[in-house]
Design brief:
heterodimer, A: 380 residues, mainly alpha, ABC transporter involved in vitamin B12 uptake, BtuC, two-stranded antiparallel ribbon, 19 helices, 2% strand, globular, B: 253 residues, alpha/beta, Rossmann fold, six-stranded mixed β-sheet, four-stranded antiparallel β-sheet, 9 helices, 10 strands
Chain lengths: 380, 253
């Protein structure tokens, strides 16, 4: 019954919308109910949803998706500098630029599949990263990063309002995009992004992408030209990344090249795999878990560890603190690595597989107890 | 003689020093079942691969309904109406059985590329119905939502056949459609192929099993060492001493 209900798109969307919009409430008890972190959930959520359309449906593992993130951020900041502090044009241009870059990189990289495709995307990403630091400095402002300045033209804003004192902030028709309004703006886009992804997953187009993942050669002999399908999926996921990049600039209007580094590309791969590749909700779970634990673990330091373990005898406390200090703060990536290894080894399908296993175990348990309950009545 | 659907002219193919196909000339008549037989390594599969665009011949043409197919992409050949059923099942193991048949049905309807990301699957009831009907015909109805990867080998062959049939091709190329099937399944497949014959679909069958060949074929071509050594009706082939020599070492067919 619940399964057939979940096949209905509108039921899924209603549940999802309610869950996202009420995040400040239900995440508050675990200390994640503040706008900064919530914005991160929404932004990386969009990034991962888009990435999952490529990786989850077609199986093509891109190691360079951070390029589109970076391109989105730069485009958004330029839109703030040249046109207006209104976020809508910034978002629109970033999505388009993300898509444009994806057309170019995708067209070239999709000539190969498997590991060669991954290497090509990685090469393009590193190339873009290095170019942002070197020859493209006039556009990217190199190491300093692209920032707003008081002398920026902002031609559209200049027509309507007097420039105030200090740097202006991003807004949506007068509503400032920091704090909760910023989160809700990201949340609305996350909901729209999720809806599009849901439709793609359940469309013939999505089915064809899955078939390409399953047996691409057969697709050719079945009458499909697979290249345009792959390119379309690549461009869609690039546009999602562009959008995520724009939202990073919306909530904090600066852009640096480190956003394009390979670690950023790797992060979205981790998130998607951790949550469950090819599932609708999985990537979002991956984002939630990684960003939440990053927030907690990287904030811990030796002093806080001493407080946590103060109930232990002194010598033991020192040993435990010494060991655990390597896993927090700067060492958070060590924790992430371990977490990732555990998930991949024991739950290759990610957290979603874990939930499914728990679900089916519970169902079996119910069935057995029902069977036990039914037996005596049979005898009567 | 009826309409010629497929015309293979002067096709040559060598692999290194091996002469796989030498000057093959073959005409396939509309609505007929044409069997190609021959010992292992005679070049049967190579010939099919040339027809379907998997291999380019060194020389010669393959004309399908008057159009040269050489150099065309596999998906273009598919849309021209020539569809191959593979010997080792080439299915989509991660999709359900029903989806496996829906994919070729969608190809037939949508063409080589169609961006329909915002149509729901529910609006494709006709495709689903069409696919279900074919599966029913081939006796795979009961398990349509199972993963295709977990089917038995014989069932995979039948699924493979459904995937070809759902496209209603004008020419169906069958590469050993009954290999690995039990006698019972083989006879069912023969019956099925006979039924389809009555619908007027032209077929080329590559087959080892003489029982299948002689119960189905209208014409037979015998391939040996890359050359056609005999052509004719089943009765002519049965009585041809050269064929017996080459194919069975003189044993009675």
């Amino acid at each position: 019954m619940s399964k057939t209900l979940l096949r209905n798109d509108w039921v899924v969307m209603a549940l999802f919308t309610a869950a996202v919009l009420s995040m400040p409430l239900w995440l508050a008890p675990i200390g994640a109910g503040y706008p900064d972190l919530l914005q991160k959930f929404a932004i990386f959520g969009l990034f991962a949803i888009g990435y999952n359309i490529l990786f989850g449906l077609t199986g093509y593992l891109s190691f360079g998706h951070a390029v589109f993130l970076g391109v989105g951020s730069y485009t958004a900041v330029w839109s703030f500098k040249l046109l207006t502090m209104n976020v809508l044009p910034a978002v629109l241009f970033s999505v388009l630029m993300g898509g444009l870059f994806a057309v170019i990189i995708g067209y070239l990289s999709l000539r190969r599949s498997g590991i060669y495709f991954s290497i090509l995307t990685l090469a393009f990403a590193q190339m873009s990263y290095n170019m942002a630091y070197s020859v493209l400095t006039p556009i990217t402002n190199g190491e300093t990063g692209l920032q707003l300045a008081k002398s920026d033209p902002r031609v559209i804003d200049a027509l309507f309002i007097e420039a105030g004192e200090g740097l202006p902030s991003t807004d949506l028709f007068g509503m400032q995009m920091s704090g909760y309004p910023g989160f809700y703006f990201c949340a609305v886009l996350l909901i729209i992004g999720f809806f599009i992804s849901l439709r793609i997953f359940r469309s013939p187009f999505g089915l064809k992408l899955l078939a390409i993942k399953s047996n691409q050669t057969r697709m050719l002999y079945t009458g499909f030209n697979t290249r345009p399908y792959l390119l379309t999926a690549f461009v869609i996921s690039g546009m999602y990344a562009g959008l995520a990049g724009a939202l990073m600039a919306v909530t904090d209007p600066l852009a640096g090249a480190e956003r394009m580094q390979w670690t950023a590309s790797g992060e979205v791969v981790l998130m998607t795999i951790l949550g469950g590749v090819g599932t609708l909700i999985g990537p979002l779970l991956g984002v939630g878990v990684i960003k939440y634990f990053e927030n907690i673990f990287s904030a811990l330091n030796v002093d806080t560890l001493h407080q946590i373990f103060s109930f232990l005898p002194d010598w033991l406390e020192n040993v435990v603190v010494w060991i655990s200090s390597h896993f927090v703060g700067e060492g958070w990536h060590l924790t992430l690595g371990l977490l990732f290894m555990v998930i991949v080894i024991f739950l290759p399908g990610g957290l979603m597989e874990g939930f499914q296993r728990i679900g089916s175990a519970l169902r079996n348990l119910f069935k057995r107890s029902e069977a036990v309950a039914a037996q005596p009545s049979e005898k009567e | 003689m009826g309409n010629i659907v497929l015309s293979i002219k002067n096709v040559d193919k060598t692999f290194g020093g091996l002469h796989a196909l030498g000057d093959i000339n073959l005409d396939i008549e509309e609505g007929k079942i044409h069997a190609i037989i021959g010992p292992n390594g005679a070049g049967k599969s190579t010939l099919l691969n040339v027809c379907i665009g998997r291999l380019a011949p060194d020389r010669g043409t393959v004309e399908f309904e008057g159009k040269n197919m050489i150099g065309m992409e596999p998906y273009e050949i598919n849309h021209a109406g020539m569809v191959r059923v593979f010997q080792t099942p080439e299915i989509f193991p991660d999709l359900s059985i029903l989806q496996n048949v829906m994919i070729p049905a969608l190809a037939k309807r949508d063409g080589v590329f169609n961006f329909d990301a915002f149509k729901s699957m529910a609006s494709n009831a006709d495709i689903e119905e069409q696919s279900t009907r074919i599966l029913e015909e081939l006796g795979l109805k009961s398990q349509t939502h199972d993963h295709a990867g977990s089917m038995s080998r014989g069932d995979k062959r039948r699924l493979e056949l459904s995937m070809g049939l759902v496209q209603h091709p004008r020419l169906l190329l069958l590469d050993e459609p009954t290999a690995g099937m039990s006698r019972h399944d083989t006879n069912r497949t023969i019956d099925l192929l006979k039924q389809i014959k009555e619908r007027g679909m032209t077929k080329i069958i590559i087959e080892h099993d003489m029982h299948v060949v002689f119960s189905l074929a209208d014409r037979i071509s015998v391939l040996a060492q890359g050359r056609i050594i005999a052509q004719g009706t089943p009765d002519e082939i049965r009585g041809n001493p050269r064929v017996q020599e080459a194919y069975l070492g003189g044993a009675e067919l």
